[in-house]
Q: What sequence folds into this?
């Protein structure tokens, strides 16, 4: 008789899986929204502006090559 109950339980397992999938997708969407909000707040803050300026300066420095000059110069005397 236990096999009969197992047969009917399969539908509820599928429903449960679908509910879990929907809940998971909803949680991911909410997490993405929260992360985007935190990023916007960081960008508006002084630390965010400083970080952006530092990244732009680093990009500008790496964009200008050293024109074939060696990075380290040394002499033998």
A:
């Amino acid at each position: 008789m236990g096999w009969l109950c197992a047969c009917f339980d399969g539908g509820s397992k599928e429903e449960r899986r679908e509910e879990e999938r929907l809940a998971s997708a909803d949680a991911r969407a909410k997490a993405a929204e929260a992360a985007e909000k935190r990023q916007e707040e960081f960008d508006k803050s002084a630390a965010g502006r400083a970080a952006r300026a530092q990244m732009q300066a680093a990009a500008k420095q790496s964009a200008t090559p050293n024109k074939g000059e060696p990075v380290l110069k040394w002499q033998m005397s």
Observations:
- The CA atoms of residues 47 and 72 lie 33 Å apart.
